[in-house]
Fold:
Amino acid sequence: MGQRLMKRVLSGIQPSGQLTLGNYIGAMQNFVKLQHTEECFFMVVDLHAITVPQEPAALREQTEAVAALFIAAGIDPLKANVFVQSHVRAHAELGWLFTTLANMGELERMTQFKDKSAGKDSVGAGLFVYPTLMAADILIYNADLVPVGDDQKQHLELTRDLAQRFNTRFGQYFTIPEPYIAKVGARVMSLDDAGKKMSKSNPNAGSFIALLDAPDVIRKKISRATTDSGREVKYDPANKPEISNLISIYAHCANMTVEAVESRYDGQGYGPFKKDLAEHVVSVIEPLQARYNDIRQSGEIHQILKRGAEQAAAIADRTVADVKERMGFLSPRG
Ligand code: TYM
Structure:
């Protein structure tokens, strides 16, 4: 690989239900930041979403919705490649090649697999090999940096192992990617239980803030968010997990440091803090929703995705051809 001036960045988000403030703070805000200085690829990972059953019409709608949310969140399609994973067929092909490099044991150790399969009688094979497709997503662009939330760290480690394994067996080829995980906000917790991460798959809608929740719904959810029985607005995740989570959301939405948030509410109790927090979240989400509605109405997203997939495929196809050559596949001739 020649020397690149900019780092190459890749990340993806599943179109499986509503996106949350956790996705925004843990991932999308970093996507927006990185696009100014690096060469970025951001995709909607529909092939990953079908590792659990999806209703076809809902999958199609959600895929378009998530792509529109990328743009609404501030990703500039002229700066970053925005595309849908299944539009670049090479992902599925490299995913299969990596599945043959992975071991059952290492896949069984993945905590996301353990969580999603716990207590189920029947577990889909796609859920099990999910991380090998994710490794393909990243390595197919020889990405240097992968902005993700804390929960994806283990998948990144497996990706690094698979890249190293390939390089050892078939000769130095893949860049070993690094995770890009923010210190605060890498794990936004649930509003009703600070022991769980905020997730779109939580059946209690009060536990998460969806990016498309109406402002009044957001205000209500924040006013009902669980807190401890004290009154000190202090960032102390071990002893005050609920308030610490809210402080971290505040800091991200108001673009302030944790310390500045603490000192603003010194001696004031939780009431005024929660009220202002709701307004800061709304002030981020309201303009995002306005842009989202414009993008959906204009239909421009299809053009953006088409261009993004063409640019991505040019790189991805080359990687797969190189990998197949190294692994010993006969190329079609004549
Ligand atoms: P997904 O769709 O579950 O989540 C998308 C991104 O949002 C982050 N995230 C959070 N961050 C902080 N707090 C939370 N509560 C929270 N919830 C979600 C996730 O860490 C993630 O960065 N496997 C990936 C999708 C994927 C991918 C990839 C990512 C497929 N291929 C290649 C990076 C590179 C996933 O399920 O994300």
About this structure: The chain has a mean pLDDT of 96.
